[in-house]
Write a structure and sequence with these properties.
The complex is a heterodimer of chains A (423) and B (259). Chain A is an alpha/beta fold. Chain A contains 15 helices and 15 strands. Classes of the chains: A alpha/beta (423), B alpha/beta (259).
C-alpha cells in the first residue's frame, strides 16, 4: 500500500490529511466496510476506526451494521441530511443515475450505456433497477428517497410528464413517463427536458450561478438549449422553449425528424458530424469524433469547429431576443473545449447586439457531463416538502467549512440559494 | 465500409469447423478493427463460442484463414493466442476464489524482479493502475475473490485481459447473471477497452447490452454469417430478424478466401 508522505509536517496536519483521505474514499465507493476502508486507503485498521468515530461524531459519515462473507462488519457511508433524492438522465446513448442529499452532494452514481433508439419501457425498467441497486450499494432504500427527477432528450409537458412533440424521440411518445416510474418506485417523479435540467443545474451549482439571465446549450447527439430568465428556468407553454435544434439554418437541407427542412439538428447533430468524415476517417461514432478533435486531429476538429460556428449563429438570434449575461455550453461536444467554444463564441459575439454594460460570456459547463443529471437531482430536491434553503443553516452542523473534503459545492450552494431569493 | 481500406486487427475468412456430423461453422468471416467493438450474436448453437474459442487458441479450424494485423497466423494453443496479443474471458470465469485480486490478475504470468524473485510490489502497483484505468469500483487489490460480487469478479476477469498489453479482447457472455448496476459497470469497462484502442469481440444473448456498446453486430445462424449491421444506426427488430432467420443475408459476403 502506498505510504503517505511522511514529510507533510505536524501530527495534526497528518490526521487531517488522513481524514480527508477516508472521506474521499467513502465518497468514491459509496459504501465501504471499515476493513475495506483500511485496505483502500492504506491506513491501519486502528487509524481508520478512530477517524470513522470522529467523522461519525461530526455528522460527516454514517455507519450501519452489515455483513461481508458471513461476518458482521461496519458499513461506512457519507451522512445524509434529511433524505435522499434521485436524479436520472436519459440520453441518446446512455443513462446516468445519481443519488444525492439535500446539500446536492452525490453519494452514489452510475452510468449505463444505452442502445441506439432505446425504447422507453426497457430503459425506464433498467433505470428503476439501477436506482434500487445504487440504494442498496449505500445501505439505503426507497423509504429515504424524497423524490426522483427524470431528464429526457425531448421537450416535455412537465405537468403530465409526456413528450410534447411527436417524432423527436422514437419509442418514448404518448407515455406518461412520470407515472410509469412512480408506479415502479412508489415515489414522486418529476420529468423535464435535459437541456432545461442542465440549465437548472448550471444556474444553481455551476457556471451560470449568480446570473439572472442565462442560456445553457446542450451539444450532444442533438442540440437543445435551456433558458434561465430572472433566475427561473423558462419552459414555455408546452415545454418547447429553447429547442434551438429545430431552428432552420439551411432552407435546402435535409428533412429533420420533426418534419421541417434544414433544422440545426440536421446540420450539427451526430449524423451530420460523422458523415463528412466517413471518406477520410472511416466509420466513426460520435465519441470517436470528439476524442479525435480533442487530440488535435485536423478533420475531426474542423467538423466540430464548423458545428460551433453554426450553433453560435443560431444562439445569436436567441441572444438578441432574450439578452442573457452568459451562455454555458455543455453536452458531449463541449468536451472538445475551445475547438467548439472558440468558433461558437466568435459567431455569437459577431451577431448579437453589442451592449456597453457587460460582455456576453461564453463558458463551458462547470458540471461537465454531469450537468443534466445534477439538474434532475436539483429538480427532485426542490419539489420536496423540506425547504432546500434550510441547508444554509444546516451547513455548519454537517461539516465545518474548509475541512478540505468537498470541492466547494457547499459554498456554491449557499450562493445558489441567495440567487433564488433575488429572483 | 471504408474501413476495409485499413488492415483489420483480426481477419477470419472462410472458417469451417465440424464436430462429427455437426457443422459448427461453415465458411464464416469476421473482421475486427482497432478501437472497435464487434458483437457476435445468434441463437444457441449458432457457432458464436466455437468462433471465439478459435481466436483464443482452444479450437483450431478445419479450414479457413486467420490474420492478425494482416499477418496469416495459426493459433494452436491459448499460449499462442496470448503471444499474439489475444486475451479471452470465457463465460465460466477462470478465477481462483481463494487468491486475492492481484494474484488472480497475474496468475501464471507473475512479474519477476532482477533476481528472478516474484515482484509483489510491482504487481500490486500495476493491478491498482489497471483497475483505476477501468474506473473499477473494487476498493482493494488485496481482497480474496470470494469476497467480491459477481460484477466485481467480472471486472477482475476483464482487468486480467489487460495484463500483457493485448491487442484484442474476446468476451463471452460478460453480462450473464449480473444485476443492472453490475452490467452497467461491465459495459463501461468495455467502452474503456475500446477507448484504449483495443479490438473487442463481444458475445452475448442480451440484445440491449450488445447494442449499447457494439459498433458492429455480426449475426451467426446455423454456423453461417447471416448479416452484418451497424449497431449505431440499426434497430433491434432487424437484428432479431436475422437471428431468427426471418431475414437472410441479402447479398453474399465478399468472396471468402478458401484455403
Amino acid at each position: 500500500m502506498s505510504r503517505r508522505a511522511g514529510a507533510a509536517g505536524s501530527q495534526t496536519a497528518l490526521r487531517e490529511a488522513n481524514k480527508a483521505l477516508v472521506v474521499g474514499t467513502v465518497q468514491r465507493y459509496g459504501g465501504l466496510t471499515q476493513v475495506e476502508l483500511a485496505a483502500a486507503t492504506g491506513l491501519s485498521q486502528a487509524t481508520v476506526s478512530t477517524i470513522v468515530r470522529e467523522l461519525l461524531a461530526a455528522g460527516i459519515v454514517d455507519t450501519a451494521v452489515t455483513t461481508r462473507s458471513g461476518r458482521r462488519a461496519q458499513l461506512v457511508t457519507l451522512a445524509r441530511r434529511v433524505g435522499l433524492a434521485v436524479g436520472i438522465q436519459v440520453g441518446h446513448r446512455h443513462l446516468r443515475v445519481v443519488l444525492g442529499d439535500f446539500a446536492h452532494e452525490v453519494v452514489a452514481e452510475q452510468m449505463l450505456p444505452l442502445p441506439f433508439e432505446h425504447p422507453s419501457d426497457t430503459t425506464l425498467d433498467r433505470g428503476a433497477l439501477l436506482v434500487m441497486d445504487l440504494l442498496e450499494r449505500i445501505g439505503s432504500d426507497l423509504e429515504d428517497v424524497v423524490a426522483i427527477g427524470l431528464g429526457v432528450p425531448a421537450p416535455v409537458d412537465v405537468d403530465t410528464g409526456v413528450v410534447s412533440v411527436p417524432g423527436l424521440l422514437r419509442g418514448w411518445e404518448d407515455e406518461h413517463l412520470a407515472q410509469v416510474l412512480t408506479e415502479r418506485l412508489g415515489r414522486p417523479v418529476l420529468v423535464d427536458n435535459d437541456a432545461n435540467l442542465g440549465a437548472l443545474a448550471e444556474a444553481t451549482l455551476g457556471a451560470a450561478r449568480g446570473y439572472r439571465d442565462a442560456v445553457y446549450v446542450r451539444a450532444s447527439y442533438g442540440i437543445g438549449a435551456g433558458i434561465v430568465l430572472g433566475g427561473q428556468v423558462h419552459r414555455g407553454f408546452a415545454g418547447t422553449a429553447g429547442e434551438i435544434g429545430h431552428v432552420q439554418v439551411d432552407p435546402t437541407g435535409h428533412i429533420c425528424r420533426c418534419g421541417s427542412r434544414g433544422c440545426l439538428d440536421t446540420v450539427v447533430g451526430a449524423n451530420a458530424l460523422v458523415e463528412p468524415l466517413r471518406a477520410s476517417h472511416g466509420s466513426l461514432a460520435l465519441r470517436d469524433v470528439i476524442a479525435r478533435a480533442r487530440d488535435g486531429d485536423p478533420g475531426s476538429s474542423r467538423v466540430v469547429a464548423d458545428a460551433g460556428a453554426v450553433i453560435g449563429s443560431v444562439l445569436a438570434g436567441l441572444g438578441t431576443s432574450m439578452n442573457p449575461q452568459c451562455v454555458v455550453v455543455g453536452g458531449e461536444l463541449a468536451e472538445t473545449g475551445e475547438v467548439l467554444l472558440g468558433p461558437l463564441r466568435e459567431a455569437l459575439q459577431r451577431r448579437v447586439l453589442l451592449n456597453q454594460v457587460a460582455p456576453l460570456e461564453v463558458v463551458p459547463a462547470a458540471l461537465g457531463q454531469r450537468a443534466e443529471v445534477m439538474g434532475a437531482l436539483v429538480l427532485a430536491l426542490r419539489s420536496a416538502d423540506v425547504p432546500v434553503r434550510a441547508e444554509d443553516d444546516a451547513a455548519p452542523v454537517g461539516a465545518p467549512p474548509g475541512d478540505g473534503r468537498r470541492d466547494g459545492a457547499r459554498e456554491e450552494q449557499g450562493e445558489g440559494g441567495r440567487d433564488d431569493d433575488r429572483g | 465500409m471504408t474501413e476495409a481500406t485499413r488492415t483489420p486487427l483480426l481477419s477470419m475468412r472462410g472458417i469451417s469447423k465440424r464436430f462429427g456430423g455437426v457443422e459448427a461453422l461453415v465458411g464464416v468471416d469476421l473482421e475486427v478493427h482497432r478501437g472497435e467493438v464487434v458483437a457476435l450474436v445468434g441463437d444457441n448453437a449458432a457457432g458464436k463460442s466455437t468462433l471465439a474459442k478459435m481466436v483464443a487458441g482452444v479450437l483450431t479450424p478445419d479450414a479457413g484463414l486467420i490474420e492478425i494485423d494482416g499477418v496469416p497466423v495459426t493459433i494452436p494453443t491459448p499460449a499462442a493466442a496470448h503471444a499474439l496479443g489475444v486475451a479471452t474471458v470465457f463465460q465460466e470465469l477462470a478465477l481462483c476464489d481463494n487468491l486475492d485480486v492481484t494474484s488472480n490478475l497475474f496468475l501464471g504470468r507473475e512479474l519477476r524482479d532482477g533476481r528472478g524473485a516474484r515482484d509483489d510490489e510491482r504487481m500490486e502497483q500495476v493491478a491498482r493502475q489497471i483497475l483505476r484505468d477501468l474506473t473499477s469500483r473494487i476498493p482493494t487489490v488485496r481482497v480474496p475473490l470470494s469476497h467480491l460480487s459477481a460484477g466485481q469478479r467480472q471486472a477482475v476477469a476483464i482487468a486480467r485481459t489487460l495484463i500483457g498489453s493485448p491487442r484484442l479482447v474476446v468476451l463471452d457472455e460478460p453480462t450473464a447473471s449480473l444485476s443492472v448496476a453490475q452490467t452497467a459497470e461491465v459495459l463501461v469497462h468495455i467502452e474503456g477497452l475500446r477507448d484504449l484502442g483495443l479490438g473487442v469481440v463481444l458475445i452475448s444473448h442480451n440484445m440491449t447490452d450488445v447494442r449499447s456498446v457494439a459498433d458492429r453486430v455480426e449475426v451467426l445462424r446455423h454456423g453461417r454469417n447471416n448479416g452484418s449491421f451497424d449497431a449505431r444506426s440499426t434497430g433491434y427488430e432487424h437484428i432479431i430478424a436475422a437471428i431468427t432467420g426471418a431475414s437472410r443475408a441479402a447479398t453474399p459476403r465478399p468472396v471468402p478466401l478458401r484455403s
